[in-house]
Hints:
Layout: E1 3-16, E2 19-32, E3 36-40, H1 47-54, E4 63-72, E5 75-76, H2 82-88, E6 93-96, H3 100-103, H4 110-121, H5 126-139, H6 145-149, H7 158-170, E7 176-180, H8 188-205, E8 208-213, H9 216-222, E9 225-230, E10 233-239, H10 240-245, H11 250-257, H12 297-301, E11 306-308, E12 314-316, H13 322-335
Parallel strand pairs: 3-8, 3-9, 6-7, 7-8
Antiparallel strand pairs: 1-2, 1-4, 4-5, 9-10, 10-12, 11-12
Helix pairs in contact: 4-5, 5-7
Amino acid sequence: MEKILEVENLHVTFTTYGGTVKAVRGVDFHLHRGETLAIVGESGCGKSVTSNAIMRLIPDPPGKISAGTITFQGKDLTKAPEKEMRRIRGVDISMIFQDPMTALNPTLTIGTQLMEGLREHRNISGDEAKKRALEMLDLVGIPNPEERLKQYPHQLSGGMRQRIVIAIALICDPDLLIADEPTTALDVTIQAQILELFEKIQETTGVAIILITHDLGVVAKIADRIAVMYAGKIIEEGTKREIFYEAEHPYTQGLLKSVPRLDMQGEALTPIDGTPPDLFSPPIGCPFTARCPFAMEVCDKVYPEHSSLTETHSVDCWMQDERAKQLLAASAGTKN
């Protein structure tokens, strides 16, 4: 499959009065055309910063992309001039933000906001723009589209507003859609409808999707591959099945144990003890060491090398490094 996006060694920092926050620290991942990649992890791990970096929406100052490349369809976005990025945003890459109420302008009608992108990026008439807007409302399952075009955001429900935001993101036929916590503010029933909508849209348009979320239930529904993020790094990556059934990093295992499942009748959920490290001064070793039940002396001193377990499954953990396994075996032999 064709790679549509490749992120290599991405670093994003923020300069504050308290010092420099190293929010993203050497992130690598890729995305194929028509694929859904979920980036998961707890709040503050760098998921949204990574997605904003792809869109070049990091406010400078205080933030900046300090290193790395973001290659989209053969072009390095980190070097693209702002004028070109304005053309790329909304046309080639679109983004759905967390809260649909704040993503929409309360003073403009739905029709005006839907057609704004078309008028900005496509040389089409008002009638053509309206026809396309009605098609998009139909695609995302909005009833009475003619009437909705005249309404304002406050006149719609939360689920309806989220569908409008998705329609705005898709109206110019982007190749890549970034969805940042698209179901967080919605109830469970509406969440399920929005996820089904994503599947339908991908089937219809072939758009590639990056899904940013902390909800593993959302991931299980629509992701093809999953990247697990912690303290500004991707610490495990694999297919949906590999992450859910063959997770190797203790943090990934901890995330899975803290999520309720239908087969856990009577069992208590297990939280991950401790807190993430301070990214003003991140640890030199594995950032999960202080919270890890399997931590070894080397974990605190040296960051683990990237271990490829299969063609699609990789992890940054000393427990998967052959040298550490040999040391542990030798240590066990000495004790015996």
